[in-house]
Amino acid sequence: MAEAENTPTVVVDGVHITYTVHGGRSGGRGAATAALSRMLRRGGAATPAARRVHAVKGVSLVARRGEAIGLIGSNGSGKSTLLKAIAGLQPVERGQVYTHGQPSLLGVNAALMNDLTGERNVVLGGLAMGMSRAEVRERYAGIVDFSGVNEKDDAISRPMRTYSSGMGARLRFSIAAAKSHDVLLIDEALSTGDARFRRRSQRRIDELRAEAGTVFLVSHSNSTITETCERALWLEAGTLRMDGPAKEVVAAYEEFTATGTGTEPGKPGK
Question: Where does the record locate the signal sequence feature (predicted)?
Fold first, then answer.
């Protein structure tokens, strides 16, 4: 059993990720004036500038079966981009990503059909994750109950576009958590629910880990990371600054955000 728990499920080896942003940098009034001048000279619309963003810079890590790993860091530090690369949704420029099984990415903006009812989205989401129709029918009531979207009214029968962001996030998590995953990637989905839903979610994550899965969790709530994960990765400006016990990594990150110290990237702990 110990050998099975030590089995690597994700290996990220020296990964660099870049992408192109169209429209240029936000340069304030001076940039706007320059753009207007270009438009007037050309007699038409200005061609948006394009720039390359180096979002992830040489990140390496190994995740093992049964781990829950939190990702923390400032906005734009590369957390979500790294999750997309692990899920196979974001190409890497250099380096390699190896995964055992099919990773499943769950995010607040995960694609569900806003014009369809919550009920239809439960069915479509379950099928998209590889469930059979019989499995979706069997788990349907549990998914809806877990999400809590039907507690006040018959919201599950209404279009998703009528849901609050919290309701939508809870339903997305509930669909994804209805089956076991080799690797489950959660991007901010637990930050929008109430305390009761977060407790239910954390228990479900523990169950998924016990079922020999690996969970990655991105959150801006440091307490959620320390309560849910035993290990954390701190990404800052695309580099991996620290990899180690969640409480130690969160403490170092909180000191960094409070004082602005810690400019040198740390060595990974695992």
Answer: none
